[in-house]
Amino acid sequence: MVAPLSDDTLALPGDGLREGVVNALRTALGDALLDVVLKPNDDLWVRVRTDAWRQAGLVLRDTVGCDYFCFLSAIDWMPSPYGKSEEDPTQPKEPIDLTVQQGYAGGDTRLQVFARVTNLAKHFGVTIKADVADAHPSIESWVTVYAGANWHERECHEMFGIGFDGHPDLRNMYLPTDFEGHPLRKDFPLLARMVKPWPGIADVEPLPGDDSEDEG
Amino acid sequence: MTDLADRQKLSYIAAQAADARLNVELETEGMTLNIGPQHPATHGTLRIIVRLDGEQVVWAEPSAGYMHRGYEKLTEVRTFPQVTALINRIDWLGSFANEVPFILAAEKLMDIEAPPRAQHIRTILFELSRIANVSLFLGDLGVQLGAVTPVFFAFRDREYVLNLIESATGGRFHPNFDRIGGLKDDLPAGWIAETKQVMKRLRAFCDEIEDLLFGNEIFQSRLRGIGVIPADVAKQYGLSGANLRASGVDWDLRRDQSLPLAWDKVDWKVWTHPDGDSFARCWIRLQETRESTKIVDQLLDTIPAGPIMAKVPRIIKVPEGEAWVSTENPLGEMGYYVVSKGDLGPFRVKIRSASFNNISIVPWVLRGVYVPDVISILASLYFILGDIDR
Lengths: 216, 390
Prior knowledge:
The structure holds two protein chains of two kinds.
Chain A: H1 7-11, H2 14-29, E1 33-39, E2 43-48, H3 53-62, E3 68-76, E4 111-119, E5 124-132, E6 138-140, H4 149-160, E7 163-165, H5 191-195
Parallel strand pairs in A: 2-5, 6-7
Antiparallel strand pairs in A: 1-2, 3-4, 4-5
Chain B: H1 4-26, E1 31-35, E2 47-53, E3 56-63, H2 71-75, H3 80-87, H4 95-110, H5 116-145, H6 149-169, E4 178-179, E5 182-183, H7 191-214, H8 217-223, H9 231-236, H10 242-245, H11 253-256, H12 278-301, E6 321-329, E7 332-340, E8 348-352, H13 354-360, H14 362-365, H15 371-381, H16 385-389
Antiparallel strand pairs in B: 1-2, 2-3, 4-5, 6-7, 7-8
Helix pairs in contact in B: 3-4, 4-5, 5-6, 5-7, 5-12, 5-15, 6-7, 7-12, 12-15
């Protein structure tokens, strides 16, 4: 157990405080802390090794003082094989590049679990990510760290098919029990779009008297 | 910090022991009772399954999902400006407040800021949607406890606020008024004077509700000391908004983070209550409605001149990146985690809605309470179904 953040660190303004948080995480987790993104005057992202997920939660709660659980969810980084529905349906389809490309704090897998916790006394939050294996995605449950993670993990389980080891009750929240597939994965088709192309992608016509130099 | 799992285990064992003792002594059987999905106390279609021992709840499980609309998936196939039409419908009583954090997240990624006049009007409309939302709560609260009059007062006075929102935005319930870079339109003529009149009315409405309900002895005995949520439990479950402040946690996102909105330019107070019971949650909301009318009054006096739209490209492409923005919505912390890949639409949007977390504490807080208190606790936690299911 690492001692909580010192008063000196807690007294630092914004980014100094976030650096203190990173140092505390590095001390407690060692090389299980894989990557850190600190955007000045904005926010803090960290990525931890999958097997250190629960321990990282404990460190965030007890050492960093982030006792408020905000949310937990997952991201599927694979681009949708069905396109973004931005294409003109009258034109032939262009091949879609399915290369998986992760966002802030990097990653190695297609699916990533991420969560956000907040320190209410000092008004800062940390977004924490971890990779989950592509073949059998699963990760330790946070239920014993943050009780509120219970429903978030259930939602994440049915929407992304990620298992949470140690979760007491991973029943579906929204979907029927015998539903097949994981709707928020990118390779799950949105049937409404399969049946009828989206009419909202009409090209914007220039307005009269409009200067076109601000074209996006 | 106390280990919540242990505490839960202990209270569960105690409940089981009490259950077993009763069964031996009286040869009673537990009963399973469905509250909902169609029940006036569920504000929509939330089903709560409770297991009863006599009049006491030994186990409770809310069953959400009757209104899941899959907004997180739908945002992935829409462009950024189109998303606001969807997320309007998450918390349908305070629609404009849903749009603001998403637009702010998109603006953060694009590195633009709305002009001061737009920020100001956004804040005014935000507070008006809070008043519209919470005034209905205050009226509905009476109905849950058997008092019918307050809800008529609430519907009467909320109408004035909705009329204001309609005359400014064109939509009573779903304004869809916020744009990346500013607002769709400026305020109509005469709106400021009219709003001041309505704010006066709303303050009178708060006084009425306080006289009718909060001073009432039956009301107090139904709510005081019922459904107590300690601060550390509230934080672990991610309760936010009035539910968290009623547990004594002094935290309000309007004050405690810097956003390009106008709350820091006016004088107002964040109310907290040390008790954490149902009464505290209701009382905080009453005080907040009063504060909101004060915020609106002050903002109306100081609207800066200038444009209402920043210069944004006609076709909006949001640069690659990730952004998290949350605001203090009528129901609590509402935030959007927006991931963009530089396209017309978002790559992934995680919608963090307040009611989802606020209701996830129900199995914990309902254990051991009596059946009539189930209704009053649910009413005091205040949720909107669309905000749970999304």
